[in-house]
Amino acid sequence: MTKEREQKKPFVWLIGNYAAELKFLLTTLLLLCSFVTFFQFIPSRFTISASDLRVCISRVSQVIIPTPPSSISHLTTTTLSPPPPSPSPPSPPQEKLLPNGILKRVFNPYGSAAYNFVSMGAYRGGLKTFAIIGISSKPLHVYSKPTYECHWEQNINPNDTKTNMSKPMSTVGYKILPDWGYGRVYTVVIVNCTFSEPINNDNKGGKLILYASTSGGGDTNFNTTDKFEVLTEQPGTLDVSVFTSKPKYDYFYCGSSLFGNLSPQRIREWIAYHVKFFGPRSHFVIHDAGGVHEKVLEVLKPWMDLGYVTLQDIRDQERFDGYYHNQFMVVNDCLHRYKFMGKWMFFFDVDEYIYVPPKSTIKTVLDSLEEYNQFTIEQMPMSNKLCHTDDYGKSYRKWGFEKLVYKDVKQGIWRDRKYAVQPRSLYATGIHMSENLQGKTTHKTEGKIKYFHYHGSIAERKETCKVFKNSTKVTYDETPYELDTTLRGIAGVIKKFELKMIGSRLQKTRQ
Prior knowledge:
It is a single-pass membrane protein. With 511 residues, the protein is α+β, with helices and mostly antiparallel strands. The protein has helices at residues 2-17, 19-39, 50-61, 69-72, 138-143, 161-165, 264-278, 294-305, 327-337, 362-368, 400-403, 491-502, and strands at 96-97, 103-104, 118-124, 129-137, 147-154, 169-176, 186-194, 206-213, 225-233, 249-258, 282-288, 309-313, 342-347, 352-355, 374-381, 386-388, 406-408, 418-421, 426-428, 436-437, 441-442, 450-453, 467-469, 473-476, 479-483. The strands form six sheets. Strands 10, 11, 12, 13, 14, 15, 18, 21 and 22 form a nine-stranded mixed sheet that branches. Strands 3-4-7-6-5-8-9 form a seven-stranded antiparallel sheet. Strands 17-25-24 form a three-stranded antiparallel sheet, with no helix packed on it. Helix 7 (264-278) runs parallel beside helix 8 and helix 7 (264-278) crosses helix 12.
């Protein structure tokens, strides 16, 4: 008897300690059996699909969050209605099998590869003409023939019946592509609008409208035309005398896009040199594409204050992928914006120094080229590393064009030229010359004018002298060089000129 009780104790102990768990298990089994029995009486056509489950879950997820009690007191009596649901986008067409057995495929376009036209500026070229400067989708112009139409809409005076009856004047826009195919996603487009009669001759004001049509380019099913205003003239603001009067400046500089980590010392040297070279009747337009950082601005500011420099922030053009920071667009905008401001307009870079021989001046040289509307300038390529041993240990105190004294004399290769123009004769321009001008061009300027090119030195923020030589002729990296101290000899004159013009405020400028 005692033995039997001893044998039952473990079983009783198990039931006593796990009674709740066993009860839950038995209840679950009972419900499961009932659920299986119930499903045997449901018709076979009844099913639960995955989409039904998604709908159910989505409804459950749309929980209304109650307003916290603390925020109820801040509500007004106005009932706040929920925002209207945004319309669902239409479903894209789907491929389908046609009755004849052919599978009809579909092509669904999304977004836009490039803009039809990006305008930078629009300017008058005279009483009848305008120039619109911008960029456009390069494939559009390579593989299609987009067209442009110019409209002038005169301001309407309610008291002038004659003006009210006049219709907008229209003309076909003539496009020029000045970047010679160098564009990337975008290519430069200059639209010339030449009307049959003077525009805004009564000086009542108006606006120039451009219609830019793709003409079947891109999506050939559509001829998309964009209409936009490019220029507005307020009443009484047109000064027609500017087209015939003497220019304000004799020499005008249009700079390409400045970008990168530029050396403030190199910019300091360049601007001081050329203000001295061109003289008081000169002006310089600098375009900042990201290169005019704080230290460079400190160098330019004194000359801006004196009226020699205009600095333009063009950093937003980086949104549009054009060749070399859109420099073709930039120089064309400068050309047309200041077309009537300078007798001669120069196009070259901030690592290049214009030079005329002794006993000559820039005035005497250009007077001798008066019959030409454009001339090119011969290049003198200088090393950006080689210096003379005379400057060893003290090169850091010398200016760049003072210590970089070795000229590349390799023969039989083509070297780029830079150029100057009489801007009133140009319709568009390039980087190394213009192909869109009236009048004559000459390249025979050797011995009259040249430029020294210090390629690769403008963004060098460390000491430029890397190799020192003690010879008039050297070979470095398989390139022959000769000693040329032309600019070295006038460095002292430029330093004194800077000190006279702006004082000692830039004396502590460094690389």
